[in-house]
Amino acid sequence: MCAHDNVQRGGSWAELPPAEHVDVAVEGLRMLADPTRLRMLWLLCGDELDVSTLAGRLGATRPAVSQHLAKLRLAGLITQRRAGRHVLSRARDHHVGELLGVLVHDAEHRRSMTGHPFGGP
To answer: Three-class SS string for the chain?
Structure first.
């Protein structure tokens, strides 16, 4: 569905969201603007993982993964719990996965329409 295919008039799109909601949304998107964090969050939408497992799957160092996790936690995109000596992380809820799914699907759609790696002209 494209913007020109689904033009909505009025409703919740007619009013701007509260400034504090926009600020939180922008901070969340800022966290997703990093390829490693986006990939990490993608994995955390599918499973609860510890730092070592994430580091192995991402090909990153444990300290780098820990720093990324701290940023995602502060942005409210993940939750963490202790399981013995391990700290397990996962996406906060299904909304995070839905957002990532839409972003990646849109990227695939834009790239296939333009043939350009970044979806541009």
So the answer is: CCCCCCCCCCHHHCCCCCHHHHHHHHHHHHHHCCHHHHHHHHHHHHCCECHHHHHHHHCCCHHHHHHHHHHHHHCCCEEEEEECCEEEEEECCHHHHHHHHHHHHHHHHHHHHHCCCCCCC
Q: Which residues contact 87 (CB under 8 A, 6 or more apart)?
A: 50, 51, 80, 81
d(CA 12, CA 83): 42
User: Could you count the other beta carbons within 10 Å of the beta carbon of residue 69?
Assistant: 23
31 strand-pairing partners: none
Please state the separation of Cα 107 from the chain's center in Å: 13
Measured in degrees and rounded to the nearest 5, phi and psi for residue 106 equal -65, -40
What rounded mean pLDDT belongs to the chain?
88
The single-letter code of the amino acid at 100 is L
Helices 94-114 and 35-46: crossing angle in degrees, nearest 10, is 130
Residue-wise pLDDT for 16-39, tens only, equals: 999 999 999 999 999 999 999 999
